[in-house]
C-alpha cells in the first residue's frame, strides 16, 4: 500500500520513530504535531537499550546509527553493611547486563535528525481531540481547527488524547510508589574516592521497601551519572498521584526532597549517598509510577504507539525499545497491507499482546524490588538467582522482548 496522509500526535521519541516509519513505508504526507514549544533535546534523563533489541532496531532502521551510547556489561547488587563492607557497601550478587546507556535528549536529537525531510514537524501544535470519521480521521487543534487525515497515530505519551478516543476507559493507575530521578556531571565525582562509579556497570542499591539504580550515561558536554531511586513517598495520601502527574526539576516539594535525604542517610552505603547528593536540584525530579495497558491499540483509523498504548514501569528497562519496536512493526504492517484496515489489523496483531506482557513483567519487577522486597542482606547467590527467575516468570530477560518475525 502506498499513499495517504498521516498525522502523528506527539513529536517525542515514539513520534519521530513512527513518522519516519510512515514516510519510509510510502505515505504521501506525514505531519507531526508536537504541543511543546521548547527544546525537547534539553531533557537529560538517562535510559538503557538492550544490545539485542538495539541490533534488531538498527537493522530495521528504527534506531539510527551514530547516536552516542555508553556500553555496560554487568549489574552489581549491593546492600549497606556497616560491620563489614565499608563505605561502598557489600556486593551480594552480580549478573550480566548487555545494554548500552543513552542520554534522552541526544537520542531524541538523533531520531529527529534522521526523520525524512518530507515529514512536516509542527511545534506548538496542541491537539485537543481526535475522531475516527469512518473514511478517515480528524484532528482538532487548540485553535479550533479540524484537520482531516487518512490515519492518526497517537504517540502522545501517558496523557494521550488519542487514547481517549480509542479506549476512553483505559487510564494510568498509580502503582503506590514513586521514583526520584537525577543525573550529574561525572566530573563532580573527582576527589570523591572509593572508586567513583564503575564505568561498565549498573549499581543497584537495595534496601527494605525500595532500590536505586546508578549508571554512567553519555551527555552533550561529557559523561554524566544517572540514577533512579524507587520508594514509597512520605504521607502519600496527601500527594496528587491519583491523576498522572510528575514533579519536574524546580518543582519537587520540600517534603519529597527531605524524604530523599532521609533515605540516603538511613539506607545507602555512605559512598553512594554522597554520589547522589552531588546532584543539583535543577537536575532532580520525582515521577510517580503508573501502569497502563490499553484495551485496544487501534480503532477505526486511529492507532496507539509508545506510552500512549502501554505505560510500563521503568524496572523493565524497555520503554524506548518498545516505542521503536512499535515503529518497526508499524512499518512492516504497512508494507504487507493492501488497505488501511489490513494495516491496522496487522499492527495490532504484532503489538497488542507484546505490550500487555511487558506491563505484567514490570509489575512483577516492581513487586520484588519495591513493594515486597526480600531480605537481600541474608540471601546467598543461589537464593538471589531463584528470586530473580521467579520475577522473570519465563521471560528471557529484562529490556523488552525480541521482535517476532
Automatic annotation (TrEMBL):
Domain of life where this protein originates: Bacteria
Family matches, as Pfam families: FAD_binding_3
Residues covered by the FAD-binding domain: 288-360
GO MF term set: FAD binding
InterPro entries membership: DHP_3-monooxygenase, FAD-bd, FAD/NAD-bd_sf
PANTHER family for the chain: MONOOXYGENASE-LIKE, OS06G0597600 PROTEIN
Protein name per its UniProtKB record: FAD-binding domain-containing protein
Organism of derivation: Streptomyces roseus
Amino acid at each position: 500500500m502506498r499513499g495517504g496522509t498521516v498525522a502523528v500526535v506527539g513529536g517525542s521519541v515514539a513520534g519521530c520513530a513512527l513518522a519516519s516509519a510512515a514516510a519510509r513505508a510510502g505515505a504521501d504526507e506525514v505531519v507531526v504535531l508536537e504541543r511543546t514549544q521548547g527544546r525537547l533535546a534539553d531533557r537529560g534523563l538517562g535510559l538503557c537499550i538492550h544490545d539485542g533489541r538495539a541490533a534488531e532496531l538498527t537493522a530495521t532502521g528504527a534506531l539510527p546509527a551514530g547516536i552516542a551510547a555508553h556500553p555496560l556489561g554487568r549489574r552489581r547488587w549491593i546492600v549497606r553493611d556497616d560491620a563489614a563492607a565499608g563505605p561502598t557497601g557489600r556486593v551480594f550478587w552480580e549478573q550480566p547486563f548487555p545494554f548500552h546507556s543513552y542520554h534522552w535528549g541526544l537520542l531524541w536529537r538523533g531520531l529527529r535528525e534522521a526523520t525524512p525531510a518530507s515529514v512536516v514537524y509542527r511545534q506548538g501544535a496542541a491537539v485537543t481531540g481526535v475522531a475516527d470519521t469512518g473514511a478517515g480521521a480528524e484532528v482538532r487543534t487548540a485553535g479550533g481547527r479540524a484537520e482531516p487525515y487518512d490515519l492518526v497515530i497517537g504517540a502522545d505519551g501517558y496523557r494521550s488524547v488519542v487514547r481517549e478516543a480509542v479506549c476512553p476507559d483505559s487510564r494510568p493507575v498509580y502503582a503506590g510508589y514513586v521514583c526520584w530521578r537525577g543525573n550529574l556531571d561525572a566530573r563532580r565525582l573527582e576527589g570523591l574516592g572509593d572508586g567513583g562509579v564503575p564505568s561498565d556497570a549498573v549499581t543497584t542499591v537495595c534496601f527494605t521497601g525500595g532500590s536505586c539504580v546508578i549508571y554512567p550515561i553519555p551527555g552533550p558536554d561529557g559523561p554524566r551519572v544517572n540514577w533512579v531511586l524507587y520508594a514509597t513517598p512520605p504521607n502519600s495520601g496527601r500527594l496528587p498521584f491519583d491523576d498522572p502527574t510528575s514533579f519536574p526539576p524546580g518543582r519537587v516539594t520540600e517534603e519529597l526532597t527531605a524524604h530523599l535525604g532521609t533515605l540516603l542517610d538511613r539506607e545507602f552505603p555512605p559512598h553512594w549517598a554522597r554520589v547522589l547528593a552531588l546532584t543539583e536540584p535543577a537536575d532532580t525530579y520525582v515521577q510517580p509510577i503508573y501502569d497502563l495497558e490499553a484495551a485496544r491499540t487501534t480503532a477505526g483509523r486511529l492507532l496507539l504507539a509508545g506510552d500512549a498504548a502501554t505505560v510500563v514501569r521503568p524496572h523493565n528497562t524497555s520503554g524506548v525499545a518498545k516505542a521503536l519496536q512499535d515503529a518497526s512493526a508499524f512499518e512492516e504492517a504497512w508494507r504487507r497491507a493492501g488497505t488501511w484496515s489490513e494495516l491496522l489489523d496487522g499492527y495490532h496483531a504484532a503489538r497488542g499482546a507484546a505490550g500487555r506482557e511487558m506491563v505484567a513483567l514490570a509489575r512483577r519487577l516492581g513487586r520484588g524490588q519495591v513493594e515486597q522486597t526480600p531480605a537481600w542482606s541474608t540471601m546467598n547467590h543461589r537464593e538471589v538467582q531463584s528470586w530473580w527467575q521467579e520475577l522473570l516468570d519465563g521471560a528471557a530477560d529484562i529490556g523488552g522482548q525480541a521482535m517476532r518475525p
